[in-house]
Write a structure and sequence with these properties.
The protein is mainly α. The protein has helices spanning 2-5, 22-51, 53-58, 60-76, 83-88, 103-148, 158-176, 181-184, 189-203, 210-215, 235-257, 259-279, and strands spanning 90-94, 217-221. It has a two-stranded antiparallel sheet.
Length: 280
C-alpha cells in the first residue's frame, strides 16, 4: 500500500519546456494584433450596416476594445493557443506553478491588458470633468458672495474653514490636471510605462507587457526541444530604448518645470530657421 501511495519516480511534478525566445514573443504579439485589427475591421463593417456610419464612428473606440476582447477571449479562454501563439509554437505559462495559465488568470490577464487602460482613461476623464464643474460652481458662488458684499461678524467656523480648504484644493486641481492626452498621448503616462516595460523585456525580463508581469505569466516553446539555431538577443535594443526613454523623460520634465526655457529654445529655433530660409 505504501508503494501505491508514492508518486512514480519518472513523473515530474512540473512540466519543463524551453523558454520562448524574445523574437518569438514579439512576433506572436504582432500576429495577434494583426488578427485583432482584422476582426475589428470586419466588426466595423457590420456595425456600419446596422448602426450607420456616423454612430459607428462615435463608437469606434468601443468597437476596437470589444474586438480585441472577443478575439483573445475566443482564442484563449478555452485553454487553447491564440493565432499568434500557434504561429510561433508558444504557450503562456504560469511562472508560479510551472503549468499552463488557468482560465481565471487568463480572464485577469484580458482585463488588465485590454480593459484596464480604457477604464483608467474613462475614470480620469470623468473625475477631471467633475472637478472642473465643481470649480466653476465654486467660482460663481464666490462671485455672488462678493457682489452681495456679505460680511462675517464672527470668525469662520471649523466646518467653513474645512470647506474653504477643499475649495482651494479643487481650484488647484482644476488648473493643474491635464487632459486625457496625459495618459494616452505620445508623451503620456501609458507610453512611458509601456516603453519602460519593453526595455526591461528586451534586456532580460520574461514579461512582454505589464499585464504579463502582474499575473506572473511568460511563454514557453511548445516542444521539449528547440531548433538548433541560437535565439537572437535584444539586449542592445533594450539599452537603446532605456536611454531614449530617459532622454525623453528628461525633456518632458524640463518642459513642465521650465516652460520659459522651452519657449526660448523654440523661438531661437524658429529664428534660425527663418534666417536659413532668407539665405537660401
Amino acid at each position: 500500500m505504501k508503494e501505491l501511495s508514492e508518486p512514480h519516480a519518472g513523473t515530474p511534478s512540473r512540466l519543463t519546456f524551453p523558454n520562448s525566445a524574445q523574437a518569438e514573443i514579439v512576433r506572436l504579439h504582432q500576429k495577434d494584433a494583426y488578427y485583432a485589427e482584422l476582426f475589428r475591421e470586419q466588426a466595423r463593417d457590420v456595425a456600419v450596416e446596422f448602426l450607420g456610419a456616423r454612430l459607428t464612428h462615435k463608437l469606434d473606440n468601443l468597437l476596437a476594445l470589444g474586438a480585441s476582447m472577443v478575439y483573445l477571449s475566443l482564442c484563449t479562454l478555452g485553454g487553447s493557443q491564440s493565432l499568434g501563439e500557434e504561429y510561433v509554437n508558444a504557450i503562456m505559462r504560469d511562472r508560479r506553478k510551472g503549468g499552463i495559465v488557468s482560465a481565471k488568470r487568463r480572464i485577469l490577464f484580458l482585463v488588465l491588458y485590454i480593459m484596464a487602460p480604457f477604464v483608467a482613461v474613462r475614470m480620469y476623464s470623468i473625475t477631471r470633468m467633475y472637478i472642473l464643474r465643481m470649480d466653476m460652481h465654486i467660482t460663481r458662488k464666490r462671485l455672488r458672495e462678493a457682489q452681495s458684499m456679505e460680511i462675517l461678524v464672527h470668525g469662520p467656523s471649523l466646518l467653513t474653514r474645512l470647506w474653504n480648504n477643499i475649495e482651494h484644493v479643487v481650484h488647484w486641481l482644476a488648473h493643474k490636471l491635464p487632459g486625457s492626452h496625459a495618459l494616452t498621448g505620445t508623451n503620456g503616462l501609458f507610453a512611458y510605462v509601456s516603453s519602460a516595460q519593453l526595455a526591461l523585456f528586451y534586456l532580460s525580463g520574461p514579461y512582454y507587457t505589464l499585464a504579463h508581469r502582474l499575473i506572473k505569466a511568460d511563454y514557453v516553446y511548445a516542444s521539449t526541444q528547440r531548433p538548433s539555431s541560437q535565439p537572437l538577443s535584444y539586449e542592445i535594443l533594450g539599452m537603446l530604448l532605456a536611454v531614449q526613454l530617459l532622454i525623453k523623460l528628461g525633456l518632458t520634465i524640463r518642459r513642465i518645470n521650465f516652460p520659459a526655457l522651452t519657449s526660448s529654445d523654440d523661438t531661437n529655433a524658429a529664428t534660425a530657421s527663418a534666417k536659413s530660409e532668407r539665405v537660401n
